[in-house]
Amino acid sequence: MERTFIAIKPDGVQRGLIAEIISRFERKGFKLVAIKIVVPSKDFAQKHYHDLKERPFFNGLCDFLSSGPVIAMVWEGEGVIKYGRKLIGATDPQKSEPGTIRGDLAVVVGRNIIHGSDGPETAQDEIKLWFKPEELVSYMISGEKWIYGDN
Ligand code: GTP
Ligand code: MG
């Protein structure tokens, strides 16, 4: 089953939005298969955002991600990579639709509270960067057939 990496950034943690964000993924029907709280080092933040290293905001972005606790998670479900991004909303909260996490809960691009992998390859790379294989848990939820049907 498809998996994606989702992180609640230091602003989301400080603003008390952990439960709110987890709840949106959980209520949708996605399954939490890994979670931890961690303060990433600057070096680690640079690895996570390596594809943005030429952007002018790269340094500030990495300083920010490493400025406090982050909730790192892996969520599983059909279409979770793409739909997770839909739940999150556009990068700039000024352009995110109401009903999305950033649309409802954030105001500026530099403090947009959540990260989500942008495709299958990045999802795989980010899960590997943030988690050891044994930190991922495979399990059944008894009500799964009410989300996916019998097959
Ligand atoms: P992530 O899920 O965090 O990766 O966001 P994204 O995929 O929606 O956007 P992208 O990967 O392009 O940018 C990563 C992060 O850099 C964003 O979430 C923002 O926090 C930050 N960022 C992107 N564009 C800007 C910008 O123009 N200015 C500033 N200050 N930050 C930006
Ligand atoms: Mg991104």
Automatic annotation (TrEMBL):
This is Nucleoside diphosphate kinase. Homohexamer. It is found in: Plastid, Chloroplast thylakoid lumen. ATP binds at residues 9, 57, 85, 91, 102, 112. The lineage of its organism: Eukaryota, Viridiplantae, Streptophyta, Embryophyta, Tracheophyta. Major role in the synthesis of nucleoside triphosphates other than ATP. The ATP gamma phosphate is transferred to the NDP beta phosphate via a ping-pong mechanism, using a phosphorylated active-site intermediate. Shows the highest specificity towards GDP. Residues 1-138 form the Nucleoside diphosphate kinase-like domain. The chain holds residues 318 to 468 of 468 of the full protein. The active site is at residue 115. Belongs to the NDK family.
